[in-house]
Amino acid sequence: MPVVVTTGDEEGGEDMGEQREHWGSRLGFVMAAVGSAVGLGNMWRFSYLAAESGGAAFVVLYIGMTALVALPIMLAEFTLGRGARQSPVLALAHYGGPAWKPLGWLFVAAGFLILAYYSVIAGWTVRYALLGLRDGFAGDASARFAAISTGLTAIVFHAAFMAVTVSVVAGGVRSGIERTNLVLMPMLFVILIGLAIYASQLDGAALGYAYYLRPRFDELASFSVLSQAAGQAFFSLSLGMGAMLTYASYLDRHEHLPNASLQIAGADFLVAFIAGLAVFPLIFAHGLETAVGESTVGALFITLPTAFEKMGLAGRLVGTLFFAALVVGALTSAIALLEQVVATAMDVFKWPRRSSAIGLGVIIFLMGVPAALDLDVLGKMDQLAGNVFLVIGSLALAIFVGWRMQDPIGEVAIGAPGVRWFFLWRSLLRFVAPPVLIVVLYYSFRALVSGDG
Question: Does the pTM of the predicted model rise above 0.90?
C-alpha cells in the first residue's frame, strides 16, 4: 500500500499545506527539461558513438531504445514527480513506503557525483570559449588541453562554473531556472543550426556526413552496440537520477505528460543529431579524421580546436560559437543536477532554498577538486556515476512504477484523457526496460572493471 501523506493539497504531496513552487508556463517546463537533457553528451558523445558504432544503424537503434526504454522511464519519472509533488526521496516514499527511500538517496548521490566532475569539464568549455574570443586557437592543441584540464586553472574555472549554477538555482524555479532556460535553449538551437549550415558548405562536408552516418546494418545485431544505444538514450535524457522527477514536481496537476515527454525527447535528439552535422564536416574538411577515434575527450578538446586553427579568422568565430554552445548545454544540465539535490534538502530537511544551493554547491565543488587535479579520477567518477548509478536508478524506477506503484496508469492519465496506450507503457516498464537495462549494466560493469570507456 502507498504511504498516506498529510498534505494541504488534496491532489498532491505538498507537506503541511506549504505552497510548492510551480513553473510559470508549460513552455518554461519543457525548455528546462530539454535543458536538463541537453548537455555535453549530446554535443559530442552521440555523434561519436554513431560514427564508431554503425552510423545510420546506431541512429536507428538509438531511436528504438528511446521509444522502448528511455521514453517509458521518463514518463515514469514525470508521473512520480507530478503525483507526489516532492523530490525523489519523498516521492518514492509517498508511493512505495519508507523501504524505497534508499533509491531516492541513490539519485541524490548520483547528482552529487555527476555534478562534481561535470562542472570540471564545463569549466574547460568556458575556458576554451574565452580563449577563442580573446586569442583564437593557435598553438599546440594537446599542450593547451594539458594546461587547461588539470591544476589550478581547472579548479578556478570549476569554481566559477559552480558559482553561476548556484546563483541560478538559488533564484528559484521561475525566476532562476525557468527564466535562464527560456533564454539559453533557443540560443543553443540557433548556434547549432548556424554551425551546421556553415559546415555544410565546406569541401569535406560530404566525407564528414559519410563517416558520421554511413550505414553498417550488421551492427544492428550487436549486443555491444545495442547497449551503447540504450545507454546513450537514457544518459542523454538525464534519466535515472531524479532530475526529471524533480522538475515534474513543480508541474500543474493537469499537465499532459505524454506530449511533454515526446517533445523533450525529440528536442534532445535534434540537438545531438545537428551537432554531428556540424562537427564531422569541420573535422574532415581539414584532414583530421584519423584523430577522431583516439578518445572522445581528445576529439572534442584537441582535434576540433586544431580544425578551428586551420580555418584562420573564420575558425576563431566558429570555434568560439561552438564552445559557447557547449557552455550553454553544460550549464542547463548542471542546473537540473543541482536543483534535484537542493530540492531534496528543502523537502526532507526543510532547509531554505538559498542556503541549500550555496551550502551544497560548496560541497559539490570540493568533491570535484580531485577530478580537476587528475583526469584518471575524473574518468572513474564518470564511469561509476554515469555507467552504473544511472543504470541502476533507471532499472529500479522501471521496476517500481511497473510493478510496485499502485495504479500508475490512473495517475499518468490525468491531463491526457485521449491517450490509449498507457497499458503498453506499463508493459514496456515491466517486460522490456528491465532486460535491456540489465544488458547495459553488464557492459557498464565490464567496462568499469577492465578500465575501458
Answer: yes
